[in-house]
Amino acid sequence: MTDRNIHVQPESGLAVEDQNVEIVERKGIGHPDSICDGVAESVSRALAQTYLDRVGKVLHYNTDETQLVAGTAAPAYDGGEVLEPIYLLIVGRATKEYEGQRIPAESIALKAAREYLDEQFPFLDVGGDIIVDVELGEGSGDLQSVFGEEGAVPMANDTSYGVGHAPLSETEQIVYNTEHRLTGEYAEENPVVGQDVKVMGKREGDHIDVTVAVAMVDEHVSDLYEYKDAVEGVREYVSDLATDYTDRDVTVHVNTADDYDEESIYLTTTGTSAEQGDDGSVGRGNRANGLITPNRPMSMEATSGKNPVNHIGKIYNILSTEIAQSVADEVDGIRQLQLRLLSQIGSPIDEPHVADAMLVTEDGVAVGDIEDEVHEAVDAELADVTGVTRKVIEGDVSTF
Amino acid sequence: MTDRNIHVQPESGLAVEDQNVEIVERKGIGHPDSICDGVAESVSRALAQTYLDRVGKVLHYNTDETQLVAGTAAPAYDGGEVLEPIYLLIVGRATKEYEGQRIPAESIALKAAREYLDEQFPFLDVGGDIIVDVELGEGSGDLQSVFGEEGAVPMANDTSYGVGHAPLSETEQIVYNTEHRLTGEYAEENPVVGQDVKVMGKREGDHIDVTVAVAMVDEHVSDLYEYKDAVEGVREYVSDLATDYTDRDVTVHVNTADDYDEESIYLTTTGTSAEQGDDGSVGRGNRANGLITPNRPMSMEATSGKNPVNHIGKIYNILSTEIAQSVADEVDGIRQLQLRLLSQIGSPIDEPHVADAMLVTEDGVAVGDIEDEVHEAVDAELADVTGVTRKVIEGDVSTF
Amino acid sequence: MTDRNIHVQPESGLAVEDQNVEIVERKGIGHPDSICDGVAESVSRALAQTYLDRVGKVLHYNTDETQLVAGTAAPAYDGGEVLEPIYLLIVGRATKEYEGQRIPAESIALKAAREYLDEQFPFLDVGGDIIVDVELGEGSGDLQSVFGEEGAVPMANDTSYGVGHAPLSETEQIVYNTEHRLTGEYAEENPVVGQDVKVMGKREGDHIDVTVAVAMVDEHVSDLYEYKDAVEGVREYVSDLATDYTDRDVTVHVNTADDYDEESIYLTTTGTSAEQGDDGSVGRGNRANGLITPNRPMSMEATSGKNPVNHIGKIYNILSTEIAQSVADEVDGIRQLQLRLLSQIGSPIDEPHVADAMLVTEDGVAVGDIEDEVHEAVDAELADVTGVTRKVIEGDVSTF
Amino acid sequence: MTDRNIHVQPESGLAVEDQNVEIVERKGIGHPDSICDGVAESVSRALAQTYLDRVGKVLHYNTDETQLVAGTAAPAYDGGEVLEPIYLLIVGRATKEYEGQRIPAESIALKAAREYLDEQFPFLDVGGDIIVDVELGEGSGDLQSVFGEEGAVPMANDTSYGVGHAPLSETEQIVYNTEHRLTGEYAEENPVVGQDVKVMGKREGDHIDVTVAVAMVDEHVSDLYEYKDAVEGVREYVSDLATDYTDRDVTVHVNTADDYDEESIYLTTTGTSAEQGDDGSVGRGNRANGLITPNRPMSMEATSGKNPVNHIGKIYNILSTEIAQSVADEVDGIRQLQLRLLSQIGSPIDEPHVADAMLVTEDGVAVGDIEDEVHEAVDAELADVTGVTRKVIEGDVSTF
Fold it and tell me: Per UniProt, where does ATP bind (chains A, B, C, D) (predicted)?
């Protein structure tokens, strides 16, 4: 055991599963805020990789400020069209010159954004339905990071914190997986399901309401009957899916704002509401664990787009979640674990000012029984802090 | 007493003042994120007022997406200059036509932004140091709000929630007032203090560290000696100020990133770090109560720029804070009150799905002793929900 | 013969071929100004075709204002890269709604621009090396044109004029064909030749200097030797080519600004100087006949991007050139024909206020000998004025 | 006499005054194209002056690419408003760093544009009715000019030419002065006259039609009667004014597109058609002498915004006009003088490859009689080539 300042203590409040009301939200990858998160993080990864390839270390950058201005669209059965394109402005800082070598930061950003959008949004014509613009200025020259050199652990340059928890509550699991599986396996079979799927879970006692808003893709809908079928399909799929995660009573609501009499339905041409009236920006949606969880402490920090080498807020948000998950997996008897990491300016980031683990144990297990195990597990994970950076750059960690 | 669904219960965890570590942050009005918040809210107010003046009710709009792209500056003793202007893009939705009448939403936005910036930033030349651009699209036509007509209470159009607390902890009071008073009364006497003042408070047990980053204004600094004097002046002022709010031991740190040997100091031409490398956007900084408080539940919702008539997230965030404050003022024996409001889609916003008040009482007071009083006070405040809208439009409520 | 007001008269000055100094210039399709012309005209054609397809007539639009902001590039032997992308802003007016039908003018513009650029610029990565943005506002509502309906001839809505001539002088032919053939057949075999080929011809007496600036494509050049070979190849090809058009003495200069000692050469990554420092806009380069001919009267009117149904300046510039060419072909004895068309506001555009043909005849032919023939030929061509519109929309006429 | 290559010869064609049809146009300072010209030239002057002040010489820049995107307005009797602001993008190249000193080129550009617009457009709210944006990239590093150092004459870096003439024909004088005096002395007394005054003169034989389009300012018009009065006032003023320049028969037409029955009139809020649907850009309007003269040879070169030290096209266009004027003033017997200057790459710009003066003499004067005088006068003017640069920087020469 090192001398890392790790506290393990009982959670003073109720476990979230025991609270009377629980609210959980997830904005799907096609939500305008998530589009920005996704683009920002893709740009970040592409820049980091370029720096590694060209100069052997990650230089200073931050691309956590993408802004999306919604377009106007005229969706229609069997296929409508975008009338006024979406406008996406990638904003941030990047090192454009290093020891005489110039780095094409803006071109890299454009290409990374295009690749990401092309891959994730089959119904969005990049360059036709969406304009991608970029403004990457230069930051202060002395902010050059040093990742990749001899595995040194960077120093924290800010007082910041991260917070994560595990395991996910049932409602959280349902919300998270509803979006993932709908836009994943389900959309593959049912292309009518667009990428903009917003899920709200509300548990009151033992009843869970799951409200799903799915942007249906117009070219796969011929008329109102098909639309209703698509809605019903989603409802059934999600109802079924929910039983994988809970024995509680679940009610699923899909596209509740529809008005069939007025034929006012949630139809889109591109699979995202960004095509019509919904603006977006980075850091306004899901937290690093993919959820918005008002019942839990959350960090305000935008994770997507930040430099994964030295941005302590990003690293600690991802790390706290990862540590919580792996500790909850490894150590038996944990019902709920919340981990908070607070940085110490000027100290290596693997030595946080304090790492606070708050535990709710399972019946019959005392915090004291597993305290040491948790302490050790947290310690071991902290020791591998640069692993997080590597995983982020390689795209193995989602940030939203 | 109405049949509003108001719960009053004991807080299950520790009062924040009793927790071992407390972190509080405030980004001053000149922080790039706050500049965006401030502009977005000014634009919102101007639009709301224009709608009221012209059509007698507030029409649909949302202007919660301002993006700031940092400039480049060359600050210098006795006055430097901005090399590349800051770029500010106001983004959102607005109703531009109503019953045949056209509303100059974009021009209104530009003028409101300019007025706000001129008023708040004496060292920033609007149009010379900062470019203000605007893209206000139109949203869905059926989202027209009806404020001002017969005082009707709008229906909640979303499942959303707001959370507020009172009273502020000592650390919160110090952090909040440090920024307010530095950029207020102190800056009036000491124009060297710019508008970008970031305050971080960290309490560990009974020791509070207050870390202040002040953008000093170059035209009021002739050399390093004067700069050091300015820093020392701030340190003393804040140390002094802190004693108004606490008996705890307080250490104040000012501009800790300075390196006097390298003459690398926090000097700016415009009083904000937006002039050099710090981008910003709405909703990324302070919550509606002006603070970032990781020890408390917080809403992710961006409050600034949202429509105060029907945006339930905005209303409930402001309202929960206002209610918490007034209840904590009125009812004796409250040590900490946290109020959470959850909306009910389709119900009037003064009838939340649930209003949860979590209490920590003072020694010798039981929750049961004041439960009814709290219930009544919350009920009365909820009844005046439209008062919040009015106050927001009139600029009597700060949103960041 | 109709009563069109056609004047045929002798040219009062010298034929251009007889003037002592003649200057002719052509900016190739890859010149920044020409890129703008080409995009503007593509957008125009796409809009016109869309209007015809959807509402059966061409509605009001004008897209003659594309602005290109140059990028920054780092060309290198065997392939360099664009560092900061080119920015292209398509500006203009378009009808976006017609009898309840919405027209996606901006999306059409983006797609037309992309298609044009993809087709013409094999070394330019659209969306990666160049950002295409668009701002198409709406014009005055009463400017709706009516092309396609019963073949009516539109009325002139402005006092405007067009001017054309035929045949091309020898120098003009050389300049024109040098660019066309270099970027055409020659580039096909020699991809090292980029699209930005600027040709200046200067004839003094019987000596012609042809100065060619060719943007060489870096990925097809391995070193300075290959570059020199490429330059020499162009020189030989153009020298050879010139003999097809003249018996005069021709000297060809290629990339004269190169400095081999400094290895400062005209190498580009994308085949156009827009990648590095050369901005461009519509109407600043070639006239409608593809040339800049200071020895001839020229119209200031930007032809590219204008509405070909009712923009009298565009129509008359193209028409005067076409008429001059066909008359010079049909009627024997013409050494030089210059035709000027002046519109009459409120009259059908096939009835110009005046059509002035200025003739220089061949030796032994008097103007009087062919006056009637010319008059008739001009008259017949004018009768088919709407044919020009059709050809423009179908892309059979070049505008720059 | 030097050995400058100056040719003096008789004009081979007819003097413009003797041609049957003459067309002359002037776009007033408030025309969208002229707004761009004016801004571009202001920016150019401000940059040149800054370079002189800071480094003692004019560095490389070119700001000849301003693009204006029209707004939308709702003019109304007694004062309307701009609905969607005009967008003005200043584009060009500038040196931003020189020997370690940074030059705030973009901020200078913004401020110069604002100052120009504020000064010239009393009814346009800069920052409210018009957004001014800027993109000044850097050009090639080796293009640094050297003005101000020892009075050296720069070398021509391009084959370019300029063309000017004097004196102005009667129609030219009328057109030029109509705009100048209307927007000058007349507008001072009659603020109803906006800055966007477009004048077209058409002379056929001895009849001159002057067609004036005046953007009337709505806040100075209460109803249709006042509007008609304003129109009639302009008509009378111009009719009167014309007699200062000609004895020919003149008919003046004002705002001919008005339709009083429909109350469709030329009313603006800002005094320029840029507020509603008319885009603009640099170099698309008046030539360097302030006129568009299809009866004369014209240069395609955009003059406004170009670097006056080394941009040979700009210098020669201004210089040829200035020389023509001063020679026509000094030398008796000149009825029409056209001067063309052609540069010689690599030679000092005061030694053009050729200076061609084409003369039409007054009755009784032979070209031979004044040939030497003209030669000498041209020679003397050329010797003072750098004087043009100075005058341009000081704003003593208009470029559009």
Answer: 137-142
